[in-house]
Design a protein that fits this description.
mainly alpha; about 350 residues; 2 domains; about 75% helix
């Protein structure tokens, strides 16, 4: 009974795998003689042990334990098996001589089971090492993920810090682009206005130059509207205006010659006319003709020099009758003044835009 109890404790407590259990459950070889027959009580115990082990083998396998638990369980099984083997060896010494072959075979099976258990223990050790390596890899991965998260957080903070600077740079870039456009427009306007001023001063038509100025300046070209009516024909030059003003002024101030009386021809009439041209009679309070025409001479000089505002101011000091006779040429001078003033004002605006003194 002690032998059976030790065997049951070693096998059942150890849970030996299918192949080792089957070898352990194999019936002992037949006794060499009738003197080596197994006692009936021992045979009954072995039969009961076989039944229990068969039931143990047929039991469904549950979920695999973890690696550490499996190793601990294997150690416990090995210890139990060693205890059972020691008990078996102790019992064998007191067993009948006829059972010695069966006991030797059983000991061989136990040794085989021990070898299988040692192999299983090696596999479990390898599994534990693999599990440790996996744990280390997972830990390294976790550290890498933490480092990556730290780097991403740092990059996010840097991006947040750079955002205001990028916004400021974007605003500066837009301002620079707008300033570049204004500078280009102002520079182009200077060229177009110079061409327009030259066309007006030369007396040639300036419709093309006027259209170009309007295209470049846009609504700011409104000061040029008063001269649009004369763009196709052009305006007189300074010299032409001065000449026309002098000629029309002379005509305005020339006194009508007295017609000779009927029958007063001949030498006496000619002498009287000559004397009349030398001696002029002026009523009291009447202005000296030379003083009256002085503004005309000044206006002619101002027009020739291109000072149209001063010329118009001088013409306003002429007698009303003379101003009426000079109305046409005065209007041409006013048109030249309007053109010159408009071009000068727009030129100053373009220069101010280039220098940055105006938006």
């Amino acid at each position: 009974m002690a032998l059976v109890a030790a065997l049951i404790a070693g096998v059942v407590g150890g849970g030996i795998g299918g192949a080792a259990v089957m070898r352990l459950l194999a019936p002992p070889p037949p006794a060499p003689s009738s003197a080596a027959e197994v006692p009936p009580a021992l045979a009954a115990d072995l039969t009961a042990l076989s039944s229990r082990l068969a039931a143990l083998e047929a039991r469904p396998t549950g979920a695999a334990p973890d690696v550490s638990g499996r190793l601990d369980a294997a150690d416990a099984r090995l210890a139990a098996l060693k205890s059972g083997l020691a008990a078996l060896e102790a019992s064998a010494k007191a067993a009948p001589a006829g059972l010695q072959p069966a006991i030797d075979g059983l000991k061989s099976e136990v040794e085989a089971a021990r070898g299988a258990l040692n192999g299983a223990r090696g596999e479990i050790t390898a599994l534990r090492q693999g599990q440790d390596a996996l744990d280390k890899a997972q830990a390294a991965l976790a550290r890498g993920q933490d480092a990556l998260k730290t780097a991403v957080d740092g990059a996010t903070r840097q991006a947040s810090a750079l955002s205001p600077r990028l916004d400021a740079f974007d605003a500066q870039l837009k301002e620079t682009a707008a300033a570049t456009v204004r500078l280009a427009r102002a520079s182009t306007a200077l060229v177009v206005l110079a061409e327009l001023d030259q066309a007006v001063a030369s007396g040639r038509p300036f419709a093309a130059e006027l259209d170009a100025a309007r295209a470049v300046l846009g609504p700011a070209a409104s000061p040029l509207d008063p001269i649009a009516a004369t763009a196709k024909a052009g305006l007189p030059t300074n010299a032409a205006l001065a000449r026309a003003l002098a000629e029309q002024g002379e005509a305005a101030f020339a006194a009508p010659a007295a017609a000779p009386a009927a029958g007063e021809d001949g030498l006496f009439a000619r002498l009287a006319a000559s004397a009349g041209s030398l001696v002029k009679v002026r009523r009291e309070g009447e202005a000296d003709p030379s003083e009256a025409r002085a503004p005309l001479d000044q206006a002619v000089a101002e027009v020739r020099a291109g000072a149209f505002a001063a010329a118009l101011a001088a013409l306003k000091r002429l007698p009303p009758q003379a101003q009426t006779k000079l109305a046409d040429v005065t209007a041409q001078i006013a048109a030249r003044r309007a053109a010159a003033d408009a071009v000068a004002a727009l030129t100053q605006q373009s220069l101010a835009a280039i220098s940055g003194k105006m938006p």
